Request: fold
Amino acid sequence: MHLFVTGGTGLTGPAVVAELVAAGHTVTGLARSDAAAARLESLGAAPLPGSLDDLDALRKGAEAADGVLHMAFGGDFADPDDLERRDVAAIETLGHAVQGSGKPFVVTSGTAVLPAGRVGAEDDEPDPKGIAPFRIPGERACLAFAAQGVRASVVRLAPTVHGPRDHGFIGVLVATARETGVSAYVGDGANRWPAVHRLDAATLFRLAVEGAPAGSVLHGVAEPAVTLRSVAEVIGRGLGLPTASLSPDEAATHFPSPFLARVFGHDGPASSARTRELLGWSPRHPTLLEDLQHGDYLAAHGA
Reply:
């Protein structure tokens, strides 16, 4: 297939593009800069100049392709309304471009949309009062196209998609520990996160484009419940720093923002049982704690 991809040069995107190309697909990726275009070309993809807000470019890319994979998500997290608006506008533009075609249309979300405090499943309804409500309208906009002749599906990624050169949430935890001299967790640290290795996530995206049924919600989750205390302890040992419990108020000033403090205190385990059964997905790359111990998270600065 010829696939149009947004977010192909983000944290997870290059692995996804490489996976698609290796499987024999032709990829065109949205590129908002010369550097992004060069990165896509190095992965074997053709760049299409444009940004997430360039709806004409999105439409052009989708209309010319046999399927669409939307991973881009940008803006200021201090303005969640803007995040939501931009995401929905992009999804609706892409979806309308393939409406009635039967083409695959895969949109990215996160398991953080699910209710906290219990293991979330693929068929659970998102929680508008949770930590990521700005993702919910995008999910709904995508899935609405399943009734409009589009093989639309949503991939909810774990909050940590780990792997080399990760500057996401786990990278923030490591950087904050280095800066403050303590590897911290919130409360008793028993709150749980799902996790997935970047290469396993890339395989899931490929499987979704190739065969996910219309209306599917899929979970990019290899491990359902890693405690944040265990993460902090591995970071502490690796950097030779003490670990410490912080109250929510202390966490709000310890971490780079109150939003991140809330994220690091979030308890949101999630299952991928239905996803594995539906697509035959079987994660096989290192776990989060293995990656922390043996990957480049702690070695980058000589730890």
